[in-house]
Write a structure and sequence with these properties.
The complex is a heterodimer of chains A (404) and B (125). Chain A is α/β, with parallel strands linked by helices. Chain A folds into two domains: 4-8 and 257-387, Aspartate Aminotransferase, domain 1 (Alpha-Beta Complex), CATH 3.90.1150.10; 16-254, Type I PLP-dependent aspartate aminotransferase-like (Major domain) (Aspartate Aminotransferase, domain 2). In chain A, 39% of the residues lie in helices and 13% in strands. In chain A, the strands form three sheets. In chain A, strands 2-8-7-6-5-3-4 form a seven-stranded mixed β-sheet, sandwiched between helices. Chain B is of the alpha+beta class and 125 residues long. Chain B has a three-stranded antiparallel β-sheet. In chain B, β2 (37-46) and β3 form a beta hairpin. In chain B, α1 crosses α2. The termini of chain B are far apart. The chains are: A alpha/beta (404), B alpha+beta (125).
C-alpha cells in the first residue's frame, strides 16, 4: 500500500538538495566553526553562507539571523529574551489565544514571574482583530507576539497591520512564522517585525534546526549563556550540518515559492471542496485568509483520533485536534477559540500538503476519507441523535450514571 | 499506533456486536459528548441471562474497542455475573490500555451496568 503523507505541518520531507548539501558536514567537513585551523574555517564559511541564504528568504541582513535548535527555541528566546532585556521598563505582553504552545507557555511562565499577559481573542474565522491588539496596549507593554499563520487551522493573521501599530507605539513585535516560511512571502520589512521565528523541518530542512531573526538594535538577553556564539545570543557549538541544511532549505524555498504555493493551493481547494460535500462537514477557520497547504475540517458526530487511526489503516497520514489524541486530553485551544461547542471540537481532521503532494494522492484521500467518516458515524450515538434532530450536549443518563 | 495493543486495534478495526437491538429489554447510555465519549448499550434478557447485546459508541479507538470487548464478555452471562464485570476486566482482556485512557475511554462496563440496571428497574414487581 502506497503511503500518503498529509501531515506536513507536523514535519516535512527533507529536500534532496538539502540533504546533499548537509552530508559533507558530517564526515568530511566536521570542524568546529570556532577553531582557527582549516577545518574550522570551512565550517565557519558554510555557516555564514547559510546565514546569507536564510536572510534572503525573509529580506533580512545576514547579521540579523541567529541559528537555533528550532521553532520552540526561537519563540522562547524571543519572548523570554525581550522580557529579560526590558526588565524594569515594563511588565506587559500581548499575544493571542491561538498561539502555538511554544509562545503560550513562555507567556504563562512569565505570568508566574509576575508579568501580565493579554491574550487577544480571535473571531469565529480564526483571525485576530488588529484593533483588539491595539486596544490592549498600555505604557507597560514591552512585547507583542502574534503568529503569522496558525499551525492547526492555517489562518493568516493581520501581522502587517499589527506591525504598523507596534512601530507607531515603539513596541517590540515578534511573529512565529514557522508555518508561513516557504508557503507564502515572509518579508520582515513589510511585516514590520523585530523578531521572527522559523523552523527548518517545516520547510523541507532538517529537524533540530531553526532561525530567530533579530532586527538590528533590538535588545535581547540570551537563554543559553556560554562561549558567546551567535553574537552572544545563543552559546553552544553550532550545529553546522543543521545550519547548512537550514540555509539550503531557505534558498530552495525562496526559489520555488510562487510555483509551490500555486501547486498546493490548487490541490488544497480540490481537497476542501471535495470534503465539504459530505453531510455535516465544516471548514475550521477562514477559507480566504488561509495557508495554501492547510485543510482542517470537522466531521460532526465522530471523534478525530479514531478517524486518524482508520485513515492510517488506509495508508493516509493525517492529524487531529481532538482531545483524545492529546497528552492532556483537552480539546484543542485553537478550536475552542473559534467558539465551537466542545462536542464539535472532537471530530476535526487536519490535512496539510507540501510541494511533494500530488493530485493522485489528493484523489485517493478524497476516496478514502468519506467511507471512514461514514463507518464511524454508523456506530456513533451522537450522530444518530444529530440526524434525529435532537439537541447535543447532554446525555440523558439511564441506569446509574457516570459522567466521563 | 497511539500506544494501543494489537488486541485494541483488532477490536477497533472489527468491532463485535456493533449496532442496535429492536425492542431491547434494557438500555444504558453513559459519557458526555463534550468530553468526546458516549457509549450506548442495549441488551436482550432471556432466563436471567444476556441473550443478545449491541453497542453504539462515539469516541476514540479505545472507547470503541472497550465497547466491543465488553459485549463479548457479557454475552451469555447471567445478569449477576455481568454486573461483576469491571473496567479492569475489560482493560485486561484487551492487553491493557494507555494509562491516560483508563478513565475516560473505559466506560464500557459502566454502560453495561446501566443497561442492566435499566432492565431491573423495568421489571420490578
Amino acid at each position: 500500500m502506497e503511503r500518503i503523507y498529509l501531515d506536513n505541518s507536523a514535519a516535512s520531507r527533507v529536500d534532496a538538495g538539502v540533504l546533499e548539501a548537509m552530508l559533507p558536514y558530517f564526515t568530511a567537513k566536521y570542524g568546529n566553526a570556532s577553531s582557527l585551523h582549516m577545518f574550522g574555517a570551512e565550517a565557519k564559511d558554510a555557516m555564514e553562507a547559510a546565514r546569507t541564504q536564510a536572510a534572503a528568504l525573509i529580506n533580512a541582513k545576514p547579521e540579523e539571523i541567529i541559528f537555533t535548535s528550532g521553532g520552540t527555541e526561537s519563540d522562547n528566546l524571543a519572548i523570554k529574551g525581550i522580557a529579560a532585556a526590558k526588565c524594569g521598563k515594563g511588565d506587559h505582553i500581548i499575544t493571542t489565544n491561538i498561539e502555538h504552545p511554544a509562545v503560550l507557555e513562555p507567556c504563562r511562565y512569565l505570568e508566574r514571574l509576575g508579568y501580565k499577559v493579554t491574550y487577544a481573542r480571535v473571531g469565529s474565522d480564526g483571525i485576530v482583530d488588529a484593533n483588539e491588539v491595539a486596544k490592549a496596549i498600555t505604557d507597560k507593554t514591552i512585547l507583542i507576539s502574534v503568529m503569522h499563520a496558525n499551525n492547526e487551522i492555517g489562518t493568516i493573521q493581520p501581522v502587517e497591520e499589527i506591525g504598523k501599530i507596534a512601530r507607531e507605539r515603539g513596541i517590540t513585535f515578534h511573529t512565529d512564522a514557522v508555518q508561513t516560511a516557504g508557503k507564502i512571502p515572509v518579508d520582515v520589512e513589510k511585516l514590520g517585525v523585530s523578531l521572527l521565528s522559523i523552523s527548518a523541518h517545516k520547510l523541507h530542512g532538517p529537524k533540530g534546526a531553526g532561525i530567530l531573526y533579530v532586527r538590528e538594535g533590538t535588545p535581547l538577553e540570551p537563554l543559553l549563556h556560554g562561549g558567546g556564539h551567535e553574537n552572544g545570543l545563543r552559546s553552544g557549538t553550532e550545529n553546522i550540518p543543521g545550519i547548512v541544511g537550514t540555509g539550503k532549505a531557505c534558498e530552495v524555498a525562496k526559489r520555488d515559492l510562487v510555483a509551490n504555493a500555486a501547486h498546493m493551493l490548487k490541490l488544497r481547494d480540490r481537497l476542501i471542496g471535495g470534503l465539504l460535500t459530505l453531510d455535516e462537514a465544516h471548514l475550521n477557520g477562514s477559507r480566504e485568509r488561509r495557508l495554501p497547504n492547510n485543510a482542517n475540517i470537522r466531521f460532526l458526530g465522530i471523534e478525530g483520533e479514531a478517524l486518524v487511526l482508520l485513515l492510517g489503516e488506509k495508508g493516509i497520514a493525517a492529524s487531529t485536534g481532538s482531545a483524545c489524541s492529546s497528552k492532556k486530553l483537552q480539546a484543542s485551544h485553537v478550536l475552542l477559540a473559534l467558539g465551537l461547542p466542545e462536542w464539535q471540537t472532537h471530530g476535526s481532521l487536519r490535512l496539510t500538503l507540501s510541494k511533494y503532494t500530488t493530485a493522485e494522492e489528493i484523489d485517493r484521500a478524497l476516496a478514502e476519507i468519506p467511507p471512514a467518516v461514514a463507518r464511524l458515524r454508523a456506530m456513533s450515538p451522537v450522530w444518530k441523535k444529530l440526524k434525529a434532530g435532537e439537541k447535543i450536549g447532554h446525555v440523558k443518563e439511564k441506569g446509574h450514571a457516570h459522567m466521563g | 499506533m497511539a500506544g494501543y495493543t494489537d488486541k485494541v486495534m483488532e477490536h477497533f478495526r472489527n468491532p463485535r456486536n456493533m449496532g442496535e437491538l429492536k425492542e431491547p429489554d434494557g438500555v444504558g447510555e453513559v459519557g458526555n459528548p463534550a468530553c468526546g465519549d458516549v457509549m450506548s448499550m442495549m441488551i436482550k434478557v432471556k432466563d436471567g441471562r444476556i441473550a443478545d447485546i449491541k453497542f453504539q459508541t462515539f469516541g476514540c479507538a479505545a472507547a470503541i474497542a472497550t465497547s466491543s470487548m465488553i459485549t463479548e464478555l457479557a454475552k451469555g452471562k447471567t445478569l449477576e455475573e455481568a454486573l461483576k464485570l469491571t473496567r479492569t476486566d475489560v482493560a485486561e482482556q484487551l492487553g491493557g490500555l494507555p494509562p491516560i485512557k483508563m478513565h475516560c475511554s473505559n466506560l464500557a462496563a459502566d454502560a453495561l451496568h446501566a443497561a442492566i440496571t435499566d432492565y431491573l428497574e423495568r421489571h420490578k414487581r
